[in-house]
Q: What sequence folds into this?
């Protein structure tokens, strides 16, 4: 298999009438998805001004995820293009910069977002924009010229990019992580087999399509012939509607960001209704607070719970841990062991291999899973995608994650913190993640985030929950030495989240420091 279109075609042949994707408005079977994608691709290839640009070029989406969006995504891939979703909630200036970097052959939007897109594209007269509703209506029943599609397909290679997801950059410029077909195919084959995802499953997609967590939903569904139920973003502010949706769709698998899991548990969603067919519950993106995990386990004790770890640059995840016991409130959950065909190891500050338990090192990864690099940013690409310093015999490209980790006595990997979350305070090296874990073990604390004020040399803690500041501080004194106790503690109704659903540290810095 060299192109993910083969996943679609295989499922369309073996499970033609299975629902492939659904949203609250519509659903589409695998056979229908293949037909509509090919019709739309055929129409694209007849447009002389974009046909050539689509080969190895970008199709950008300025809209929320939907069944219709999946159709056009697959159409773009049939044309040899890669796709990229531009977050509609980000500031217009940033969206403009993302589109400039992409320089897409085509931009897809909808009625809801067309007005904002027009403002973003002001001065860019060359941008080719299609409204998705009129596009799919006009391409319906288009005659599919198989020869043209096959000619385009003859040039496909598995190292070509499939998608670009943008992450924040340290310089303020967004970084476009380019991931190839080969990386996704390799990972999804292993992922679906490891967690027994089949054509009988229903996956509930939480993540927006500009966040790589969604890749596991989209392509596990395509590969296994399973249904992917797309959950609108707004459902994650209404727990009753969300739980109704999970139950009505008879969801069996969720692969969610930790913040989404915490939303359900904090808002008592499971007390309203339990999706009883849910059998595999996977989470990633941040450290899962054990307190919130236990709320899920109370209502779904027989489900399998899986912690996933890995940054966008290594195609979703590189390690996993199937939880096989209870954890204390302040006990970290392992990142676990590597997926098949992924090499995960630790390097110390001198680039020596770390193997012993309890010794911290930077998490590094090599294998087919590695992203192509950052779109039009060779300097940043070469900074973190580097030659393995342990290998002097041949070229072995690795990704330095910037995450710190350590092994336990059983060889399980634990994520400990970001390299840039490690501080020097009162002569001591401190991991801010350790302070966060201590805070979240205190009764009445739901989420916590720790920052360091360099100017005032002060540790600052932001948290949400019902606990009073004094009780949080007293609770941490039981767990931490005096030099690690925050000098400033602020309670928030809700901690701000970034576009990927993680706690927004930049927003907190603006508010607290």
A:
């Amino acid at each position: 298999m060299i192109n993910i279109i083969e996943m679609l075609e295989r499922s369309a042949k073996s499970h033609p009438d299975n629902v492939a994707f659904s949203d609250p408005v519509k659903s589409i079977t695998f056979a229908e998805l293949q037909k509509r994608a090919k019709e739309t691709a055929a129409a694209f290839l007849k447009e002389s001004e974009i046909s050539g640009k689509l080969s190895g070029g970008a199709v950008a989406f300025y809209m929320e995820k939907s069944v219709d969006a999946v159709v056009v995504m697959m159409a773009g891939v049939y044309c040899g293009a890669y796709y990229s979703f531009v977050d509609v909630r980000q500031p217009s200036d940033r969206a403009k910069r993302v589109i400039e970097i992409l320089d897409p052959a085509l931009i897809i939007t909808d009625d809801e977002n067309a007005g904002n897109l027009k403002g973003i594209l002001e001065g860019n007269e060359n941008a080719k924009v299609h409204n998705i509703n009129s596009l799919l209506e006009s391409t319906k029943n288009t005659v599919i010229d198989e020869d043209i599609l096959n000619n385009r397909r003859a040039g496909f290679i598995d190292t070509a990019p499939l998608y670009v997801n943008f992450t924040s950059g340290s310089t303020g410029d967004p970084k476009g992580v380019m991931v190839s077909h080969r990386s996704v195919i390799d990972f999804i084959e292993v992922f679906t087999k490891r967690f027994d995802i089949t054509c009988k499953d229903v996956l509930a997609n939480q993540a927006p399509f500009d966040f790589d967590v969604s890749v596991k939903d989209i392509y596990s569904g395509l590969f296994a012939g399973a249904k992917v139920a797309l959950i609108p973003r707004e459902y994650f502010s209404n727990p009753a509607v969300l739980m109704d949706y999970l139950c009505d769709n008879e969801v069996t698998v969720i692969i969610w960001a930790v913040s989404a899991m915490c939303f359900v548990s904090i808002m008592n969603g499971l007390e309203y209704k339990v999706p009883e067919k849910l059998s595999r519950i996977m989470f990633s993106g941040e450290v899962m607070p054990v307190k919130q995990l236990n709320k899920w386990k109370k209502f779904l004790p027989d489900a399998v719970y899986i912690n996933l770890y890995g940054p966008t640059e290594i195609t979703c995840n590189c390690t996993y841990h199937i939880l096989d016991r209870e954890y204390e409130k302040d006990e970290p959950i392992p990142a676990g062991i590597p997926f098949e065909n992924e090499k995960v190891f630790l390097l110390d500050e001198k680039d020596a291999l770390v193997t012993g338990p309890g010794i911290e090192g930077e998490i590094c990864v090599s294998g087919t899973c590695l992203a192509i690099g950052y779109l039009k940013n060779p300097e940043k690409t070469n900074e973190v995608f580097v030659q393995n310093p342990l290998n002097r015999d041949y070229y072995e490209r690795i990704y330095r994650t910037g995450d710190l980790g350590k092994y336990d006595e059983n060889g399980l990997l634990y994520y400990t913190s970001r390299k840039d979350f490690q501080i020097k305070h009162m002569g001591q090296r401190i991991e801010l993640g350790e302070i966060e874990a201590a805070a979240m073990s205190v009764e009445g604390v739901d989420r916590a985030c720790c920052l360091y004020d360099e100017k005032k040399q002060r540790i600052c803690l932001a948290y949400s929950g019902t606990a009073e500041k004094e009780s949080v501080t007293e609770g941490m004194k039981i767990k931490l030495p005096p030099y690690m106790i925050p000098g400033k503690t602020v309670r928030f109704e809700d901690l701000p989240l970034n576009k990927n659903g993680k706690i927004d540290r930049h927003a907190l810095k603006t508010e607290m420091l």
Observations:
- Residues 426-512 form a domain with the GMP Synthetase; Chain A, domain 3 fold (CATH 3.30.300.30).
- The chain has three domains: 5-230, 335-417, 426-512.
